[in-house]
Structure formats: structure tokens, C-alpha cells
Amino acid sequence: MRKRLLVFSTDPIGPEMPGPAIRAWHLADALATGAGADVVLASTVSVEGSHPSADLRHAHGPALSEMVEEADACFAPSALVYMADELREGAKPVAVDIYDPYHLENLEMGAAVPADHDLSVARQSGVLNAALRRGDYFTCASERQRDFWLGSLAALGRVNPYNSAGDPTLSRLVSVVPFGLPPAPPVRRAPALRGVLPGIGAGDKVILWGGGVYNWLDPASVVRAVARLATRAPEVRLVFMGMGHPNPSVPEMGAATEVRRLAGDLGLTGKHVFFNAGWVPYEQRADFLLDADVAVSAHLDHLETRYSFRSRVLDYIWAGLPMVLTGGDVLADEVASGGLGKAVAPGDERAIEQALAELLASPPPKERFALLARRYSWEEVARPLVEWGRDPRRAPDLVAGHALPDEAAAR
Predict the structure, then answer these.
(1) 82 and 123: one domain?
(2) Reported pTM
(3) Can you tell me the distance from the alpha carbon of 240 to that of 217, in angstroms, rounded to the nearest whole number?
(4) Average pLDDT per block of 10 residues along the chain, 411 residues long
(5) Which of 46, 48, 73, 170 is deepest in the core (most CB within 10 A)?
(6) CA–centroid distance for 205 within its chain
(7) Strands of the sheet with 205-209, listed across from one edge
(8) Residue 134 and residue 332: Cα distance in Å, rounded?
(9) Concatenated DSSP letters for 60-114?
């Protein structure tokens, strides 16, 4: 019998989707085609349009309970597992997506009152720990992340004889399922920047900051680097692709406000630095990527970096865009070692300037990007989740009623 699998997103599903919604969209497709399942893709925010292989639903109010009741198994982000009693306390197999360690991101959010910041991070950690206690199976973004999450699970008592019996590496508990890419290369449908955005002409050199601007990133160093570069290469144009998050519950962060102010103070806005106020529709992102010469992603030196997996970098690989990245995360290492771009030290605007100049003058050949793009195709990266989706199972320790450390101590 065909399984009925329920895939959740806590972001809007529709024309304008942030990374987590894009991930849910493609993993729903992989489960439908690879596992031969009937898949429902549900957003707790909103849905618009249709999906090629899943039934789109709005998981609002009683509808969420009905969907869980009808499903054989669920795949959900950790925050929803915490929030929804139907997932946290129910008996259906639940796969938990932990590819984004958002409590580490939250360390960089800051707050006017340190105690408030501390409380916010503690709450995020509590949300994650509740999901780690409940999940029957977990998906993360890299082997480095997997080590991190196994440590977290071990601290909660989930690394135990029940789960290791017959599975000594715990691969049936935690698998690497990174963000992925479409199998076909991008196709340009229409101009998006050159001759479209006032101030960017056909002969200009476009540097693209893909995705949003968040506090754990470092757009300021890139703007300062472009200011330096523009003195000897006046044709350079830096474009921030998305300043307005499509999820109304995600406000503009301080880094976004600050980078606008910095560009204005340096006299760059509308001349060498441009901000797309909204969010590029998912189906149009290829037009932006293919209108650029070089891409960039920068962050500061902090813990979030080591365990990050920046989906915008995959888009750069997909489009064959040479890139300048701050080093320290797994994708930056792969890009640098593969000769697809350059990795620089955190906060080094002079190194960013030099790397941009070199890549604009001598970009790597497009063919060099194909191998990595194939390795990160959605079909390839989704294989462990698809295998679980063919035969969803409860975690052995949860079936056995294994006592977690805090529970055992109370007895």
C-alpha cells in the first residue's frame, strides 16, 4: 500500500519562498517520486498555486490535526514538532528536520538587554531539545552538523543501546540530507538586472549577494570592499537580491538596516550598491543569478559559521557563478578546493576586494561547477529521507519507553 506522508513548512509555500520552504517543496517531490508515496505539503502560514507531485494544504487550526491523523508519517521542522501537540505527543513516526541550528544563529541576534538575549537563546535551545527528545529520525545538512547533533542527542540520552542495536553508526537515527539543487542547469527567461534596474547597464560588472541579510552575516565588509574596488573599477555594481523576507513574522534585522545606512553614508546607493526591496520569486531567481558576474557571501567569525550550510552558495554553484566566500563552513571549503571561487578571512574587506577583482578579471571555467552541482541534486541528497519514507518507523528507544536522563534521575 502507498504510504501517505505529510511534509510541513513553517514558511509560506508559493511564488516567493525562503530557503526552508524551498527545501520542503523539493523534499516533498523527492518523497512522492522516490518513495512512491502520496504526499501532502502543508504550510502553517499560507499556500498558493500547486505542486507537481504533492497536495498543497494550509495547516491552520483543526486542519493540522486532521492531516496528522490521516498521515502514516510526518516530516517537520523542529520548531513545529515543539509547537504542535499532534506531533510532539502523538504516536505517528516523525522525522525532524534539523538542518538549521537556529539556536546558534540566535547567538548573533543580540539584544539591548543581555538577560533578554540569554532568555531568547535558552528558549530556542529548549524548543530544539524537545524535538530531539521526540524525533524518530533526524535530517541534517552535513557530516560536521551530524557530529554536532549526535552530541546533542547523546546529552539527552538518545544515544543508547536501543538505538544502536543493529545500527552501530546510528545512521537510521540521524542522516545527512543537505539542501539541494535542480538537476537541470538554470535557464535565463528574461533580463533581471542589466538594463532593468536603473543604474546597471549592459557593460557593468555585477556582484550578487543572494538571499537575505541577517545578523549572523557580514554585508558591511562587502560594501566597504566594493567601495574600495569602485575607485579603480567604476563599472562594478553590488546587488542585494532580497531585503524583505516573504514570511511576515520575520522582521528586518539590524544587519539589513545597518548595511543600507552604510551604503548611503559612503555615497554608493543607486551608484555601486543596489537593494532589491522585496524577495525574488523562486521561479525567477535564475534570471538574477545569470545576470551576475560574481557572487558573494560573507559572515563574521562565530560558532554559527562552523555548522552553517548556506543555501545561497548552492544557487551560485547551480548557476556557475564564481564566488567570494568567507571561509569556515563546509561549502566554502568545497568551493575553494574545487577552484570555483575564493575563501577569505572573516571581516577582511581588503581580501574581499582583491578576490572580487581577480574573479571579475579571470573567472573559472563554467564546466568546473558541474560535478559539485550533480552531487547536490535534490535526487541525490534526498536518498536517506526517501529510504525512511518507504518504511517510516518509530525510534526503538521511544517504542521501548527508554527513560531519558532527566526522567531517570527523578525516579
Answers:
(1) yes
(2) 0.91
(3) 13
(4) 95 93 97 97 97 97 95 97 96 96 82 82 93 98 97 97 97 97 93 93 96 92 98 97 84 90 97 92 93 96 90 95 95 95 97 98 94 95 98 96 65 40
(5) 73
(6) 27
(7) 273-275, 236-240, 205-209, 294-297, 323-326, 341-344
(8) 33
(9) -THHHHHHHHH-SEEEEEHHHHHH-HHHHS--S-EEEE-SS-HHHHHTTT--SSH
Q: Is 117 helix (H, G, I), strand (E, B) or coil?
A: helix
**DSSP assignment of 346-369:** TT-HHHHHHHHHHHHHSPPPGGGG
On whether both 213 and 108 belong to a single domain, the answer is no
Number of separate domains in the chain: 2
Determine the distance from the C-alpha atom of residue 291 to the mean position of all C-alpha atoms in its chain, rounded to a whole number.
23
Query: Would residue 157 be called left, alpha or beta, if left means φ above 0 and alpha means ψ between -120 and 50 degrees?
Result: left
Q: Are residues 321 and 283 in the same domain?
A: yes
Instruction: Enter the C-alpha cell of residue 169.
Output: 553508526
Q: Are 126 and 384 in contact (CB under 8 A)?
A: no
Name the residue type at position 400: A
The single-letter code of the amino acid at 396 is: P
Report how far residue 173's alpha carbon sits from residue 244's, in angstroms, rounded to the nearest whole number.
36
How distant is the alpha carbon of residue 406 from its chain centre?
Answer: 32
Q: Are residues 367 and 387 in the same domain?
A: no
Q: Which three cell numbers stand for residue 372?
A: 559539485
What 3-state DSSP class applies to 264? helix
Domain assignment present for residue 193? The answer is no
